Amino acid sequence: MSTQEIDVVVLGAGPAGENVADRVVRAGLSVAIVESERAGGECSYWACIPSKALLRPVELRAAADRMPGVREVLDGSGDGSVDADAVLARRDEFVHHFDDSSQADWIGSTGALLVRGRGRLSGERRVEVDHDDGTTTSLAATRAVVVATGSVPTMPPVNGIHDVGAWTNREATGAPRVPGSMIILGGGAVGCELATAWRRLGSSVTLVQHGERLLPTMEPAAGERVLSSLRDDGVDVRLGTSVSAVRRDGSTVHATLDDGGEVTADEFVVAAGRRPGTRGVGLDTVGMRDGDVLPVDDTTLVTGVDGEWLYAVGDCTDRAKLTHMGKYQARACADVIVARSKGETAMLGGRYAKTATTAERTAVTQVVFTDPQVAAVGLTERAARDAGLDVESVSYDIGSTAGGSLQADGYSGLATIVVDRERRVVVGATLVGQDVTDMLHAATVMVVGEVPLERLWHAVPSFPTMSEVWLRLLESYGL
């Protein structure tokens, strides 16, 4: 077996891997990107893109029902119904009917080489790719190997879970029809989004959450408002319990709960977390354990591996597991690899040096596309206090602004900022309500830029928009 030399080998052609490859190629290095499934990765086919394609139509219908002059020209049912077949057809268009040829063509257009097969480390700077036809390609990276293999769903220790045809996010976002009923295990972002989409598309949904609230890593008010909305939609939300056993009897799944109850449905959906997609990647050849989370330093180098050649980005690392954060890491990773190839000192590259720690650890952004939407950046009040900060939390009703009241009849929304009293800067913000997602970036700039409150006072929001809430929050704080 001959060995092909190439500057950089990237394992995984998802958003993070693609961004590394594109940026490195544009700097003049050669790149091979290895993918065993579809070019474009989880986000493009089974996660971010299809889930939002399912959610946007039902979100628009709910918004229309809140707007006089619009709701009257709909079907008059007032039940929030949509044409489910049309929604699923549009979802299929967004995932290109699971054909990745356009993504593969884009990779080729960048100058990177797409290698189809299962890539694995075989030693320092060495990667072997096993192809479906039984052949193997050997690659030698002269500069770096980047692991960008993402994450896979975690299957909790539930008796019978492997025998009932349990769905993960893949089956749940790619279903060809609306199930009559489903049980969703997990009340985080994925579980809440799936419950919102499928209930409004016509499925009967039971959501089981082991904790006492939904969206447990976010501000409590966010989970409370999403809980209220789901229940108003008719979702049977069970808090403080979990599923101990499942069995399938013909077409029906029977789920036994920890509290002794039983729930039945057509499908059983697991949305209870994810683990790094590093099994079978050959970590044992570089002194690590198969399936490990990859710890990285602020240059995205995998710690504990000598030689400054093994990098990792995205969900397989110990950093924030979100597509946009993986792409951010990828840009930093590419800049570091290029700088080191030129013999330059590389500490996250010039543009990342000052803000990387903030962006990665204290200013992570997240949006949950439920109704109400939840958009957050930085620290919650509790997380800030746990970090030893002296903070004050301030909230304001978005519906009390002119922009909010114009946005929808009976607009219900809440904006919260967490202020570091000593430095007088915003360290966290959470927005809950219809159409709040595009307001998040303003908060992100506040947090990442550590903009003093006194300066924010002069960032005058346009009237009448919902952004007026930023002024009201400052006034409530006392400026």
Automatic annotation (TrEMBL):
Question: From the Swiss-Prot or TrEMBL record, what is one GO molecular function term?
Answer: dihydrolipoyl dehydrogenase (NADH) activity
One family from Pfam that matches here is Pyr_redox_dim
Cofactor remark from the record: Binds 1 FAD per subunit.
Q: Which Gene3D superfamilies match?
A: 3.30.390.30, FAD/NAD(P)-binding domain (3.50.50.60)
Q: Which residues bind FAD?
A: K52, G119, T149, G150, S151, D315
Which residues are in the Pyridine nucleotide-disulphide oxidoreductase dimerisation domain? Answer: 365-470
Which co-factor is required? FAD
Q: Where does NAD(+) bind?
A: G186, G187, G188, A189, V190, G191, C192, E193, G273
User: Which UniProt keywords are given for this protein, alphabetically ordered?
Assistant: FAD, Flavoprotein, NAD, Nucleotide-binding
| GO biological process assignments | 2-oxoglutarate metabolic process
- The FAD/NAD(P)-binding domain sits at 7-329
Q: Note the SS bond partners.
A: C43-C48
Tell me its family. Answer: Belongs to the class-I pyridine nucleotide-disulfide oxidoreductase family.
PANTHER family linked to this entry: DIHYDROLIPOYL DEHYDROGENASE, MITOCHONDRIAL, DISULFIDE OXIDOREDUCTASE
Q: Which protein is depicted?
A: Dihydrolipoamide dehydrogenase
Species annotation: Actinomycetospora cinnamomea
